[in-house]
Amino acid sequence: MSAPDAAPEIESRPAIHLAVVRETVPFDRLPELYDRAYPQIFAALDAAGVAPAAAPLGVMHGSPTADGLDLSVAVPIAHPLAEPRGDVTGETLPAARTAVLLLRGDFSGLAAAYERLYAWIEAQGERAADLAWEQYLTEPQPGGDPASNETLIGVQLVGE
User: What is the CA radius of gyration of the chain?
Assistant: First the structure.
């Protein structure tokens, strides 16, 4: 998926083990959770001698509620996390057929990208499961160009 206007696709994705900090958080407090969770996760992995296996993710469980979003701030790892370390626990994204869409640009485009992906899923005659994620393929840099950000959005699908 390399074109800026790349179409959504359906992929069979393997299970992915994660080190996470999971909380239900109001939308206006999402940046605070990410800013707090990633240093905790990377410190826990370092203390355990575990290296990240891929770019970080945010995993949304279910639909947003009045309390906010059930979110796992996550870092993929090669094997399940052996034991919790403070607020950092293990989680596994199950293997699943997943609709994916690559977003290029700043995070303000995420809502529209999700809307586009969910509409595409429905148009394909598919049904979304209650698990969606975004993988931050490029790390935003202070003073960097947000237009160069790449975020892969995934929505797991119901059924085989």
Answer: 16
> pTM (2 decimals)?
0.90
Nearest partner of 1 among 102, 99, 134, judged by Cα: 102
Helix (H) or strand (E) run with residue 45 in it: helix 30-48
Paired with 157 in beta bridges are 128
CA–CA distances in Å: residue 67 to residues 27, 61, 62, 109: 9, 13, 13, 23
For 64-121, write each residue's pLDDT tens digit: 888 899 999 999 999 999 889 999 999 999 999 999 999 988 888 888 999 999 999 9
Letter string b/e over residues 101-115, b meaning 16 or more CB atoms within 10 A of that residue's CB:
bbbbbebeeeeebbe
DSSP 132: E
Nearest CA-CA partner of 55 in 124, 155, 138: 138
